[in-house]
Amino acid sequence: MRILRRSPSIAARIDLAGVYADAKLLAGRSLRDVDGLDPAMVPGRCPFTLAQAMGTGWWPAPETDG
Fold first, then answer.
1. Contact in structure between 46 and 16 (CB atoms under 8 Å)
2. How is the chain split into domains, by residue range?
């Protein structure tokens, strides 16, 4: 994150959808192999923007049942 603060133009070159797809694949494997959970529980698309993810103090709200 430090590098993005020093060179904000780099953010325009980040492929959030691609990064998320790679992370989703790895997380899905871990969920299945380590935790015995269904990888389908990870959203298919990134549920936040790059600006949100890079913002300080921002954290996704937990989902609630019901």
1. yes
2. 2-54
